[in-house]
Amino acid sequence: MHDHRISAKGGMHRASGEVSSGLSSRSHLAFDHAGECFVASTSGALFWPDRETLLVADLHLEKGSAYARGGQFLPPYDSQATLDQLARDIAHFSPARVICLGDSFHDVEGPARMSDPVMQRLKSLGDGLDWTWIIGNHDPVIASSVKGMVAESLTLQGNHREVTLCHEPQQTAEEGQATSQALELCGHLHPVTTIHARGRAMRRKCFVLSAGRIILPAYGAYTGGLSLSDDAFAALIDKDTRLVVIGRQTMAITKWADLSRVRRR
């Protein structure tokens, strides 16, 4: 197992030995998982350097306007804020490809409600990039006005195995152990965990790393989170599951079992 840290200039440095659960001093944390190297960002984005691919899940664009239509008025700036963050991630990582892992829009009518300036911003982000929208349960149809390819799922060849990109987890933790030749990258569940520091309990978004899968946290400005103690995660995590926990400006990688023991105490 190797830990990778990102230097101030964006370069990658590898240090041998087990990954520490101590905090990194950077807003990005690189790690090996299932034979592939990835870089996690405090934004919730995941960069795959060997494939020059930036992955994000659950943008839920136009969630604010969907709530307003139902009589719950929220400031209508979520889409702009989410795209501003995505623009920063694209500028930082300079990917050749961007893949959105489903629920990119809060509903199928989201693109129609998007203001012209925000839609133009979205389209301009894809200039010069290979852009793919994986469909989700909130957006099973992506409007033709949105630039990019649309797919139910996508399979890419990694260094040692095929990597499947989809919205919802497709296999249990046990199945992931059995099918170690495959790696799944997905979203859908908006994972958050609870960490204890200085006498306080804090909920934090996290990446979930299990034997055959990485579950990305929700990326959107208005997205909430689901605790890893929820029944929805029961079949997806085990004692060897690791978490990349997102702090305010730093990240930490630790075992789920270690956090569980702290919570029980």
Summarize the structure.
The chain is of the alpha/beta class. Helices cover 20% and strands 33% of the residues.
Helix-strand sequence: EEEEEEHHEHHEEEEHEEEEEEEH
Oligomer status: single chain
pLDDT averaged over residues = 85
Q: Structural class, from secondary structure content?
A: alpha/beta
Q: Within the largest sheet, what's the order of strands?
A: 2-1-3-4-5-6-7-8-9
Strand residues, percent:
25-35%
Q: Could you estimate the helical fraction of the residues in percent?
A: 10-25%
Shape: globular
In DSSP terms (H or I, runs of 4 or more residues), the helix count works out at 6
Give me the count of strands.
18
Radius of gyration from the alpha-carbon trace, in angstroms: 18 Å
Give the N-terminus to C-terminus distance in angstroms. 29 Å
The major sheet is characterized as: 9 strands, mixed
Low-confidence stretches: 1-25
Write a structural description:
With 265 residues, this protein is of the alpha/beta class. Helix content is 20%, strand content 33%. The protein is built from 6 helices and 18 strands. The strands form 2 sheets. A 9-stranded mixed beta sheet has the order 2-1-3-4-5-6-7-8-9, covered by helices on one side. Strands 10, 11, 12, 13, 14, 15, 16, 17 and 18 form a 9-stranded mixed beta sheet that branches. Strand 1 (2-6) and strand 2 form a beta hairpin. Helix 2 (78-93) packs parallel to helix 4 (116-125). The chain starts with a strand and ends with a helix. Residues 1-25 have low confidence and may be disordered.
